[in-house]
Amino acid sequence: MPGLSTVVLVHGAFADASGFGGVITKLRADGYRGRGTGCAGGATPTAAR
Fold first, then answer.
1. Where are the beta strands (DSSP E) in 1-49?
2. Using only C-alpha atoms, what is the Rg of the chain?
3. What span, in angstroms and rounded, lies between the C-alpha atoms of 18 and 10?
4. Which residues does 30 contact at the CB level (< 8 Å), separation at least 6?
5. Tell me, what's the pLDDT at 42?
6. CA-based torsion, 48, 30, 20, 9: positive or negative
7. 8-state DSSP, 33
8. How many angstroms separate the Cα of 38 from the Cα of each of 1, 8, 26, 29?
9. Which residues contact 41 (CB under 8 A, 6 or more apart)?
10. pLDDT by residue, tens only, the chain of 49 residues
């Protein structure tokens, strides 16, 4: 499915991007690029692989 967007998931307070692993896996299975991010100055982003 060429042309699908990148989906950026931004966590809320008192959490980090590690909880997005399953969601990112499902997005990739559907052809999207997924990325979970940390807040500025906070956790390192979960890189799209």
1. 6-10, 33-37
2. 11
3. 11
4. 1, 4
5. 53
6. positive
7. E
8. 28, 11, 20, 23
9. none
10. 566 788 888 877 667 777 888 888 898 899 888 888 776 655 455 544 4
